Amino acid sequence: MKTRITELFGIQHPIMQGGMHFVGLAELASAVSNAGGLGTITALTQRTPADLANEIARCKTMTDKPFAVNITFLPALTPPDYPNYIKAVIDGGVKIVETAGNNPQKWMPMLKEAGIKVIHKCTSVRHSLKAEAIGCDAVSVDGFECGGHPGEDDVPNMILLPRAAEELKIPFVASGGMADARSLVAALAMGADGINMGTRFIATVEAPVHENVKKAIVAASELDTRLIMRGLRNTERVLDNAAVEKLIAKEKELGDKLTFADIIEEVAGVYPKIMTDGDMDAGAWSCGMVAGLIHDIPTCKELIDRIMADAETIIRGRLGGLLAA
Ligand SMILES: Cc1cc2nc3c(=O)[nH]c(=O)nc-3n(C[C@H](O)[C@H](O)[C@H](O)COP(=O)(O)O)c2cc1C
Fold first, then answer.
1. I want to staple 177 with a disulfide (CB 3.0 to 4.6 A). Which of 40, 47, 77, 145 is the partner?
2. Would you say 1 and 37 are in contact if contact means Cβ atoms under 8 Å apart?
3. How far apart are CA 14 and CA 5, in angstroms?
């Protein structure tokens, strides 16, 4: 299948793996890229720019296909050393960057001068248009159903994707709620040029996380995610667990008075405990509603091959068959 995204990134299939904290390591990124998709290393999971440089080098020993690095721009009092993280990407010869969070405008000259293709993750049409205006090559449009940070507009992909298609000139991938060939074909029908998956790629053989995390995703239904931190305008969709229930009880009790400090125990530094140690109640971790569509733990190649084969069957068979001869 050829789309503007496969052409832009030089990949075989229009399937991307989004950056994921403590999941997007070289094992997963290389497995996705080797399967013909676009794998992504998550920069901020690496404690220093030097660690990121090592992770990029490690990934290069595992694949000779293109892969991306996710750089998430967080609003922080003491921001990470972004210039040197970007330098590690450039020096490492990575040619695709997925930006997320704050507007990446400040970093665009540095990235573009190095010949890097930039795909910015957006949760609204207006942010997507802004990304296009500042010179991003593509957008990853994240609907309300997505795992992680869906923004504050709450527009699901059934509306958001066709709206993005109405307005954008640059290519975009559909992100949030994507799991299988049905997702891919629907996303293409709504005007996207491919799909980006987060949660689905965690439940794969190569995802370098504890088995408990994969089993929790397979066990979860579409009813098992919760939205937290709404009051802080930092909404995150997470899998329900004991820590999340505790956090939500605090949100109810404190209402408008809630500050980040009140919930720090449930959200700060919890990822290694969950992803590495498999302590599933250690805190709040991002997970999409799409968990309800995830029933197995395939290899990345099995997953991607299945999506592409089933997509062809849907397009040529079911959809083609609906048309009168
Ligand atoms: C565990 C987890 C961690 C994530 N961490 C990040 C991150 O650090 N930076 C980022 O831009 N997106 C992050 N995301 C969002 C994903 O890249 C992707 O946009 C999202 O998962 C898509 O929705 P889906 O889970 O329904 O596929 C994370 C998602 C999950 C599930």
1. 145
2. no
3. 6
Bridge partners for 196 per DSSP: 16, 175
CB of 287 within 6 A of ligand 1: the answer is yes
For ligand 1, the distance from its centroid to the CA atom of residue 212, given in whole angstroms, is: 18
- Angle, to 10 degrees, between the axis of helix 181-189 and the axis of helix 300-312? 50
For 292-313, the pLDDT digits (tens) are 999 999 999 999 999 999 999 9
Q: In a 3-state reduction of DSSP, which class is residue 71?
A: strand
Distance CA(300)–CA(29), nearest Å, equals 10
Q: Is 207 in the pocket of ligand 1 (CB under 6 A)?
A: no
CB-CB neighbours of 82 under 10 Å? 18
CB-based contacts of 271: which residues, under 8 Å, 6+ apart? Answer: 21, 22, 45, 283, 285
Instruction: Give me ligand 1 centre to Cα 141, in Å.
Output: 12
Atom of ligand 1 nearest to the CA of 199: 25
pTM: 0.98
pLDDT digits (tens, 9 = 90+) for 206-239: 999 999 999 999 999 999 999 999 999 999 999 9
If you measure from the C-alpha of residue 19 to the centroid of ligand 1, how many angstroms do you get, rounded to a whole number?
A: 6
Structure tokens belonging to residue 39: 């794998």
Whether 97 lines ligand 1, by a CB cut-off of 6 Å, is no
At residue 76 the predicted structure's pLDDT band, cuts being 50, 70 and 90, is confident
- Distance (angstroms) between ligand 1 centre and the Cα of 180 equals 17
Residue 189 φ/ψ, nearest 5 degrees:
-65, -30
Mean pLDDT of all residues belonging to the chain: 97
| Cβ neighbourhood burial of 226 (10 Å; 0-12, 13-18, 19+) | middle
- Contacts (Cβ under 8 Å, ≥6 apart) of 206: 27, 28, 31, 299, 300
Q: How confident is the model at residue 325 (pLDDT cuts 50, 70, 90)?
A: confident
- 3-state class (DSSP) for residue 3: coil
Using CA positions, which residue lies closest to atom 30 of ligand 1?
A: 286
